[in-house]
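Hi V.,

Quick status before I head out on leave. The structure for the redesign project is tokenized and pasted below; the design run finished overnight.
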């Protein structure tokens, strides 16, 4: 979000014509903030991909909430935004939650064979979760379309309820589908880990299927994020995207990898 706002300022300043008073938009590749942002983006995602093979999905997805802390830092130091006490308190709760997460969360990440991963994809609990996910996507997409229609009819005269529900429903659809990329990335990372330890051959239909699904869902997520930034205020839509993405990523890892069995095992009675 901070990089986007910085890029807008640079694009305005570097694209202005002082003689004729016109503004020419230059390609984004010429802006230093964009180049630095892309480097950080690729480097961070490479580290994320590697980490998927060595930690539980629910743990890594929840730790993604650290982005709220970085957003706060960028807003204050880069964009010169005012940071209120409420924002600081909320950020402190996020940090505290991550401390508890690391202390008591699931730290196991076993290596699965392709057969075991395939079996988990056909598990009854995971299929029911996918069905619920489809219902959620259809419901919130219809809510968004309804709000979009009302906005087109009544102009900007929308009730505060719809003003908040419109970006929220948009973020839910994006997070529900986009967060599946974490599952496919973890499956690919698991296969790479298996190939390095046991000599597994990556040339298989399962590997290519996971790669295709990962690129599709990750591409959908990035497209929706860019589109959302053009439709809604960044300070509103970015936290909504992060919250929905984190929530559905945790749920997917809990159901698919059955991480709840490890997380709640100390509290369950012994049979």
């Amino acid at each position: 979000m901070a990089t986007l706002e910085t890029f807008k300022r640079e694009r305005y300043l570097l694209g202005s014509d002082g003689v004729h008073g016109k503004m020419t938009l230059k390609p984004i590749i010429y802006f230093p903030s964009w180049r630095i942002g892309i480097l950080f983006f690729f480097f961070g995602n490479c580290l994320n991909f590697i980490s998927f093979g060595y930690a539980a999905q629910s743990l890594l997805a929840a730790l993604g909430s650290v982005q709220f802390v970085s957003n706060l830092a960028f807003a204050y130091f880069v964009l010169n935004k005012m940071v209120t006490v409420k924002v600081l308190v909320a950020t402190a709760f996020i940090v505290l939650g991550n401390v508890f997460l690391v202390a008591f969360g699931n730290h196991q990440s076993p290596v699965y064979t392709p057969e075991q991963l395939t079996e988990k994809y056909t598990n009854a609990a995971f299929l029911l979760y996918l069905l619920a996910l489809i219902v959620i996507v259809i419901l919130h997409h219809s809510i968004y379309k309804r709000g979009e229609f009302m906005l087109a009819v009544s102009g900007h005269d929308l009730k505060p309820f719809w003003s908040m529900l419109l970006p929220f429903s948009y973020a839910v659809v994006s997070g529900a589908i986009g967060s599946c990329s974490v599952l496919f990335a973890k499956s690919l990372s698991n296969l790479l880990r298996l190939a390095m330890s046991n000599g597994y051959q990556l040339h298989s239909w399962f590997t290519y299927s996971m790669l295709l699904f990962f690129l599709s869902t990750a591409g959908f997520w990035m497209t929706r994020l860019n589109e959302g930034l053009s439709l809604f205020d960044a300070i509103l839509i970015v936290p909504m995207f992060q919250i929905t993405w984190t929530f559905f990523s945790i749920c997917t890892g809990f159901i698919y990898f059955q991480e709840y069995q490890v997380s709640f095992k100390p509290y369950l009675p012994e049979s």
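Above is the designed sequence. The longest helix spans residues 124-154.

G. will cover questions while I'm gone.

Best,
W.
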